[in-house]
Design a protein that fits this description.
Helix content is 44%, strand content 11%. The strands form four sheets. Strands 6-3-2-7-8-9 form a six-stranded parallel β-sheet. Strands 1-5-4-13 form a four-stranded mixed β-sheet. The termini are far apart. It contains 24 helices and 15 strands. Strand 2 (39-42), helix 4 and strand 3 (69-73) form a beta-alpha-beta unit. With 535 residues, the chain is of the alpha/beta class.
């Protein structure tokens, strides 16, 4: 079985191999979407295919919609999407060990985000000028929204776009803002720009990035003088907040073999220039949550038919803080850092390690929970119970600490900094009482040395700040004695990384102390982890 529309015509072959197939007219949905698109998504990675595309497929299968999704991405568009007629295979890995295989056909068109690509760019402008467009969504990771580097300096491609205006943009957000301007010049058409990325206040971060371009261009008279007013008018352009939760690991060899065994041929990985792994299939867990602030100036796709929850901003904020800052993401990052140091290659295996399980239980239930506000629509205790007792220990989920460790510098401020700030602002909590969160931050500094707890060389996952932070610890070797203040201060005082200056939070010296323990000898990571757990 090959993944293309022609091969899909032989439905009996696919059904005998127990694939769920689309239950709608693919060509008709494609034509409807081409004529009057209502949803375009930027970020063509695994989370989009496993979650958003599957949600829309379920809605189409029920006859509740007649349109699909236009997706926009980078180099994977040609290799993963267009070469397979925009089809994908979703393999859902259930806790009981069973799997579900689904051919996804809700993606009707795939385009490359590159203003120099005349065909794609022309089509993008056409879509953004169409009054039918209701929602532009994004899963471009935290770093996709950043206009500045770790030193607070504007990135070179951003500076270039500030000067040149909406024509010939090269930066990601510059190109997005150029397309928003296209919608503006075609009659100030309303639109919702919805970040679905896994970070706090994602809609605000998207607004700040887009509005900064609009402001700079307007100041230089590179756009109409009312463009910034358009971007700032929530009745015309909205930036809803959202909370997303679904684990989509890299394509796993065991899943690949299973697909091969039933006759599915298109299973090979492609490693992109950004060191991400993509394949014609995507594997994911069954659990999924997407909560979106219901502010859509031009109406919205009926995603509630697919289980998506729409609510007010305050509720989204509470759910997002619950998950991103306490009940899942910090626990994931903690397991990533210490899992790499202790030689693990599966998150589920880490949950069998008493020391690591205790670490994340302490961070979640003891240190994080006091900063959580119950959002009402999801119970925090039940959520974290599901994470620690069901989702993370799922032996059929091939997720790795090395994958989760990618871009850690971009995540620490959100995943731990928000809790630290909540402690600092509280009348009843004291940041200096924290133990396990500072231990994780010290663990990250130890991780940056590139050697595991046995003293063996360890490959670091990709991260945009590695060149900036690694040199501070390069000269430190296992067995060295502290203090390490001079080496660590440039890292720990960087509020761009941690969300706060850790010394001002009263935690800098504690992190330094933990770090000194972690580097004291081979096996010190395990020894320190065990000691702090039992304090």
């Amino acid at each position: 079985m090959k993944l293309n529309l022609n091969a899909l015509k032989d439905k009996d072959v696919w059904k005998r191999a127990e694939f769920n197939l689309p239950e709608f007219n693919i060509e008709q949905v494609k034509e409807n979407t081409k004529t009057a698109p209502n949803w375009i998504h930027f970020g063509a990675g695994n989370i989009f295919r496993a979650f958003m595309a599957n949600v829309q497929q379920n809605i189409l299968n029920k006859g509740k919609s007649d349109k699909g999704i236009v997706v926009v991405g980078g180099e994977s568009i040609e290799t993963i999407y267009q070469s397979h007629d925009n089809l994908t295979v979703l393999v859902t890995l259930k806790v009981d060990g069973t799997i579900e295989k689904t051919v996804i056909a809700s993606i009707t068109e795939s385009l490359i985000l590159d203003e120099k690509n005349d065909i794609s760019w022309s089509r993008l402008k056409e879509i953004f000028a169409n009054p039918s467009l209701q929602m532009v969504s994004f899963t471009i990771t935290e770093k996709g929204y950043k206009l500045k580097n770790g030193k607070g300096e504007y990135l070179s491609d951003v500076v270039e776009d500030f000067e040149s205006g909406p024509q010939n943009t090269v930066s990601y957000i510059g190109q997005i803002t150029s397309l928003v301007y296209e919608r503006y010049v075609h009659g100030r058409l309303p639109i919702a720009l919805v970040s679905m990325d896994n970070m706090s206040h994602n809609g605000t971060k998207l607004y700040e990035a887009v509005s900064e371009f609009a402001k700079r261009w307007e100041e230089k008279a590179l756009v109409d003088e009312s463009f910034l007013d358009y971007v700032n008018d929530s009745e015309l352009v909205s930036f809803p907040w959202s909370m997303i939760d679904k684990i989509t690991p890299r394509p796993d060899p065991s899943v690949r073999k299973m697909l091969k065994d039933v006759g599915f041929e298109d299973v090979e990985d492609v490693i992109t220039s950004k060191n991400s792994y993509v394949s014609p299939f995507v594997n994911s867990e069954e659990s999924e949550y997407l909560i979106i602030e219901d502010i859509f100036p031009n109406g919205r796709p009926n995603l509630e038919e697919g289980g998506i929850i729409f609510t007010d901003k305050e509720t989204v904020d509470k759910v997002e803080k619950m998950k991103v800052c306490t009940c899942l993401n910090p626990l994931h990052t903690s397991l990533a850092i210490f899992g790499c140091l202790l030689g693990y290659d599966k998150i589920s295996k880490e949950m069998e390690d008493t020391d690591l399980r205790t670490l994340v239980e302490k961070i979640g239930y003891v240190e994080g929970f006091p900063a959580v506000v119950n959002p009402g629509i999801i119970d925090p205790k039940k959520f974290i119970d599901e994470v620690l007792k069901v989702r993370f220990p799922n032996p059929f989920m091939p997720d790795t600490p090395q994958r989760i460790a990618t871009d850690t510098s971009q995540k620490l401020g959100i995943r731990f900094g928000e809790t630290i700030k909540a402690y600092m602002a509280s009348e009843y909590l004291n940041a200096t009482d924290l133990k396990h969160i500072p231990l994780v931050l010290a663990g990250w500094c130890r991780y940056l040395m590139g050697t595991d707890d046995n003293g063996d060389k360890m490959e670091l996952s990709s991260d945009p700040l590695l060149q900036e932070v690694v040199p501070h610890v390069t000269a430190i070797a296992l067995g060295d004695k502290g203090p390490f203040h001079d080496q660590l201060k440039p890292i720990l005082s960087n509020a761009n990384i941690f969300g706060v200056n850790l010394y001002e939070a009263g935690l800098g010296e504690k992190v330094e102390g933990y770090f000194a323990e972690l580097v004291s000898e081979k096996g010190a990571v395990r020894k320190t982890l065990r000691r702090v757990n039992h304090e």
